[in-house]
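Q: Predict the bound structure with fe (ii) ion.
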Amino acid sequence: MSDMQINPLSEALGAEVIGVNVGEFDEAAFDKIHDAFLEYQVLVFRNQNLPPDRQVSFARRFGELDIHVQKESALPGHEEIQILSTKKIDGKYVGSPSAGDNWHSDLSYSDLPTLCSMLYAMEIPEEGGDTEWANMYTAYETLSDEMKRQLDGLHARHTYNRFRNPRVEVPEVYKGQGKQRYADIAPPDAIHPVVRTHPETGRKALYISERFTIGIEELPEEDGQALLDELIAHQKQRDFIYRHKWDQHDLTIWDNRCLIHLACGGVPEGQIRHMHRVIVRGDKPF
Ligand SMILES: [Fe+2]
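A: Predicted complex:
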């Protein structure tokens, strides 16, 4: 492990970890990885050989795993692994084809949202399929003092149900299943602070997103939507963003407590993007 190197990937966030095999860390090496995770928010490990069991056991070092509400995209035999894929067998997608197509923080619609997510690239298309992350520490820190004061003490409502969020589209593949699909699997709405404090770094981060946030609890509907529009425009500035172009067998891990992310899409019909995702449960945001 002495040749482990950590190289920043952009001004905004992110670092690549060179010279390690995931799953072979001793405690000292894991501590170093964990420190880098808190410092850079996204870590990229390239060229990893990661069968499901190894991905699961690496993720467990960060905490207890969660199981996604969209159970039909779970890897058979490994319910903690969700398949994100454009692949079809007999006309049916083998995993979730549209996950992450609007900016979001994983599982912010639940009471105990995701601490970190881990995504492993099994197959990569020739074109498209990038992922972007935006730094929500920076988004908060660059707000005006007046806006920071305004946000102090406010809470936002988050939902999984796309039909209740006019800022997002319902993917074609789910339209046919009707509104009931989301109603059936969505947990009750979650209410979280608009600005959360990271439980490990103590830093403040903006904690809303266009995919899951649908209102501000303390404000009249119209005022809440206007405020969300302003914050959503602010949080997606290019300066806050790192864009990752995947190679086959890349593993990324990211901190959902201080980032939002986006699956950029653009994979041509017939090309395959096939990923395994694991999510680690976090604390109640405060
Ligand atoms: Fe996501």
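A: The mean pLDDT is 94.
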